[in-house]
Specification:
7-stranded parallel β-sheet; globular; alpha/beta; 9 helices; single chain; binds nicotinamide-adenine-dinucleotide; 7 strands; Rossmann fold; 243 residues
Length: 243
């Protein structure tokens, strides 16, 4: 029986690639993101079982999304908490509204979706939760303290849930990418906030991470073969975390 995966932030960037990879490997996928036309296009590419566009920060949407995915699938076996948002700002200049916004999307939304998803996983004695963190949550990133803090929170969530759910055959893991050229970070470089050559110089492999590298790892973590891996925080960063 094909396992069913709900992937947040799958209208573009890393999430779109994860959805495609899982669908190519026989998983049933349900997509969600904010941009409806892109979501429809991506859903077609993935032969998705369903999709729903909306803002995950809105609790009503979040619950509606969960119910719709569950109705389509019958059950959600795999939850990929990928949607996230970044803000570059020195701490004293950070817009106050961003504090709630970033913590809500990057940390509370994954928590809320886990809260909704685990009952069925426990009942079925099978589940996979993969959170997408960031290397910024591991090593800290100057002028991105809000983002770093929100992503560091996912480490605690991942470890605690892994412990709590291990006996139910549910694994919970965290993937921490380094720089990936997506719409989330491209403006940092095109607007001159960061210098690409300088950033690449700090990476031992001197390169960007490709979305396909992340989706391949997520695909593995979602598979039966990865049943022994839980509570892990895996850095996929071309060596950036090594300092
Ligand atoms: P992206 O901007 O290309 O894609 C983000 C996706 O999240 C989109 O589908 C968007 O619709 C969705 N999204 C954002 N805010 C949302 C909201 N409020 N409600 C619903 N959906 C929302 O970004 P990306 O680079 O693909 O990032 C994906 C994940 O990877 C994020 O969690 C990000 O923090 C993490 N990450 C990215 C990088 C990088 O360098 N790009 C590095 C480390 C970690």
């Amino acid at each position: 029986m094909a396992r069913a995966a709900l992937i947040t932030g799958s209208s573009g960037g890393i999430g779109a690639d994860i959805a495609l990879k899982l669908s190519q490997n026989g998983f049933k996928v349900f997509l969600t993101g904010r941009n409806e036309s892109r979501l429809i296009e991506q859903a077609k590419k993935c032969s998705a079982i369903g999709y729903m566009a909306g803002d995950l920060s809105d609790d009503n949407f979040l619950e509606l999304l969960f119910r719709s995915a569950k109705d389509k699938f019958g059950q959600i076996d795999i939850l990929i908490n990928n949607a996230g948002s970044y803000v570059w700002s020195p701490v004293e200049k950070t817009d106050k509204s961003k504090i709630d916004e970033i913590f809500r999307l990057n940390l509370q939304v994954p928590y809320k979706l886990c809260r909704l998803a685990v009952s069925d996983m426990k009942f079925n004695k099978w589940g996979r939760i993969v959170n997408i963190g960031s290397i910024s949550g591991i090593v800290g990133e100057a002028n991105a303290s809000l983002y770093s803090a929100s992503k560091a929170g996912l480490i605690g969530l991942t470890k605690a849930l892994a412990l709590e759910l291990a006996e139910h055959n549910i694994t919970v893991n965290l993937v921490n990418p380094g720089w990936v050229k997506t719409e989330m970070v491209e403006p940092l470089f095109t607007d001159g906030i960061l210098d690409e050559a300088e950033q690449m110089d700090m990476i031992p492999q001197r390169r960007w991470i490709e979305p396909c590298e992340i989706s391949a790892l997520v695909n593995y973590l979602a598979s039966e073969d990865a049943r022994g891996i839980t509570g892990q925080s895996i850095n996929l960063c071309a060596g950036l975390s090594l300092g």
